[in-house]
Amino acid sequence: MSGSSNMAAPTLSLAARYYTDEAIFKTESETLFAKTWQFAGHQSQLEKAGDYFSFEIANESLFCVMGRDGEIRTFYNVCQHRAHQLVTGAGSSKVITCPYHAWTYDLAGQFRAGPNTKSVEGFDGSQICLTSVRTEIFLGFIFVNLDDDAAPMDDWFPNVRQELESFVPHWQELRPLEYVEIPENCNWKVSVENYSECYHCSLNHPTFSTGVVKPETYDIQPQGYCLRHTTECQNLDDMTYHIDTDKQNATNYSSWYLWPLFSFQVYPGNVINTYHWRALDANHVVVYRGWYTGGGHGDDVIHKLAIQDRETTVEEDIHLVESVQRGLHSRGYRPGPLVVDPNSGVNSEHSVKALQSWMRDAADKPHDQRP
């Protein structure tokens, strides 16, 4: 008898229902997105006391505000009186005042005053405070977690802070240069999977593969709940933009995908940019592509690179992920084996194997994901 019967069966890709079933998306929204670290914004949006901006995470409206003590806090965007939302958009205010009945809170969320509340027997304003949300500043980027008991980001994403800082030591100076909004007609997991492997790069991203990175050196490895991408840059004569080789790590590309909806990227030349996924429903996601510079000042090299990226890699990926989503709805689809090379490398989907295990657990065992 052949010994082949003792060989391990290959790992199959996830069943289509993980990407098309609205019930699974609802579970993800209520548990995964509410119990993981989510990107809120950049600290440069809150430069002085009273500056605030609102946003949504896991179907919850939230807002970040700079306190008088210099601390950035996040609160649920709801008045403790009769539930009216407190703020919209971004702005600056000495206090937080509800537009419904003018109940007022200080910048630390504590109730200050409300019309005629002193006439209420037993009223104790000291016991009324806005509901706070776990907040971390990660090299200038603001992340929040609706789980009060969540482990710190450094536990979820070991070594990422130190590694990223080695690529971008001037992170304190960063300001957003521009954001590109990219709607995709696919499940968020399809988009994230596509981002998390370069098996498709040489065939589908000719500009990226010949003018930015050297695909034969590309690898992706799990690092806690992070997928760390590493590669060398293309030969300098073939680069599509000029890089300053005197900078530390200047000739390397690296990316840190932070499960489930955010990624830092540093292009050769220490050009930092980000991906932020906002899942809308089982079949739609919006990707926000952020580019950052020192002081947010215009930079011709980065501006041209952002245009090149949108017109090539991003546009190419839109067609890929939307085709995959259509295929997932096909009766003819049967999940095939992932190409998992024991030696890893660019032509291996070992990173997708790790990613899909997190995805499966999030849908089937939604309370089990902790570092």
What secondary-structure arrangement, pairings included, does this model have?
Elements: H1 17-20, H2 22-32, E1 38-42, E2 51-57, E3 60-66, E4 72-76, E5 90-92, E6 96-97, E7 104-105, E8 111-113, E9 132-138, E10 141-145, H3 153-156, H4 160-167, E11 174-184, H5 188-195, H6 201-204, H7 206-211, E12 219-223, E13 226-232, E14 252-258, E15 262-267, E16 271-281, E17 284-294, H8 300-328, H9 350-364
Key terms:
alpha+beta, Naphthalene 1,2-dioxygenase Alpha Subunit, Chain A, domain 1, 2 domains
Question: Could you characterize the architecture of this molecule?
Answer:
The chain has helices at residues 17-20, 22-32, 153-156, 160-167, 188-195, 201-204, 206-211, 300-328, 350-364, and strands at residues 38-42, 51-57, 60-66, 72-76, 90-92, 96-97, 104-105, 111-113, 132-138, 141-145, 174-184, 219-223, 226-232, 252-258, 262-267, 271-281, 284-294. By secondary structure, it is α+β, with helices and mostly antiparallel strands. It has 2 domains: 38-145, Rieske Iron-sulfur Protein (3-layer Sandwich), CATH 2.102.10.10; 153-364, Naphthalene 1,2-dioxygenase Alpha Subunit, Chain A, domain 1, CATH 3.90.380. 35% of the residues are buried. The strands form 3 sheets. It has a 7-stranded antiparallel β-sheet with strand order 1-10-9-4-3-2-5, with no helix packed on it. The protein starts with 16 loop residues before the first helix and ends in a 7-residue tail after the last helix. It contains 9 helices and 17 strands. The mean pLDDT is 92.
